[in-house]
Description:
By secondary structure, this protein is of the alpha/beta class. It folds into 2 domains: about 1-95 and about 270-355, Isopropylmalate Dehydrogenase; about 115-140 and about 150-255, Isopropylmalate Dehydrogenase (3-Layer(aba) Sandwich), CATH 3.40.718. The chain is about 40% helix and about 15% strand.
Amino acid sequence: MTDYEIAVIPGDGIGPEVVDAALAVLKECEARYGLKINYTFHDFSADLYRRTGRKITAADMDEIAKADAVLFGAMGLPDVRGPEGLELGAQVEMRAHYGLFSSLRPVRLFAGVESPVKAKNVDMLVIRETSEGMFAGLGDEHEPSDESASDRMTITRATCEKLFDVAFSQARARRKRGTPGHVTLLHKSNALRSNVLMEKVFDEVAAKNDDIGSAKFYIDAGAMYMVTDPQRYDVIVTENIFGDIVSEIAAGLVGGLGVAPSADVNLTHGVFQPSHGSAPDIAGQGIANPTAMILSAAMMLEWLGERRGDDRCAKAAQSIQEAVESTLASGPRARDLGGTANTREVVDAVIDALPA
Ligand code: NAD
């Protein structure tokens, strides 16, 4: 009997390399914790589109949604573009199709990793809204031309309420493991009407969650504080495009994209993927840092465990976290962190470090 069905989309570039790495760690955990996971592989990628013109459809996404969760590598190649001139990326389509409104992006400075900007004690969760904003696909009121093109930022009360509920409950859950329990909204309500509504709903939800502290900064000052004073943040919540940018600033604080996992979730669906892209500059060399993908797989187990009340998943997720932490502290170091280890060496070290 299978406990969980996982749909796997390796994607482009280093996507398949880091997915292989995460699967090796997951398989090791299955044996240790008596989990039976069945993986179904789906070959959607920008490369497939380039070769055949085939891209993910609504029917494909409905089929994929029969799985309990999706493990996603990375998709997109800068030179592969659809008819509108935009890059191919099933991640954007899945967020819209499944209504994945929150992207959880934990960012921690692990022991043994030096912050490129010498930041200390960074431990924050960036929650990026991922179903609306300027990625909502509502597009132009007018067809783009060579002279002018526009994108519309849309924010709805319903999504804000769900998003802020997630932010405050994540802050409450994080407080149990020692963080302050605090939510900051990054927004631009001085200039964008959509953000005036977002701020209003934030104030309402914050008032209902007054056991958790809250703050609001304009995105421009808030982005500066991420670099000058990152300790002021516990949970950051923000709209789609701001979240896209600040989550990568946050990743940069703690050593880069190679150690930054993410989970795009709503109450029923979850797509787990690293924050990084397909990294075409290092693809095929076996040197990608698999840490972000491995941590994303751990987030998947944690999410599955919470939904089903399955303690085995929670324990497996915790073991992966600990094994990654000990590898970063004293194991082989990937090249993006200043070491010389290749992907396989890092994965082997993580597997060796899994608690017995
Ligand atoms: P990228 O994240 O792929 O790479 C940025 C830099 O970080 C590169 O120098 C790369 O080598 C490095 N890097 C990224 N992940 C790494 C890892 N695991 N180990 C070591 N180094 C790593 O971003 P980009 O270059 O702007 O985009 C490349 C392609 O990926 C584009 O086509 C873009 O659209 C796509 N993309 C996809 C996703 C996704 O699938 N969710 C996210 C972002 C970008």
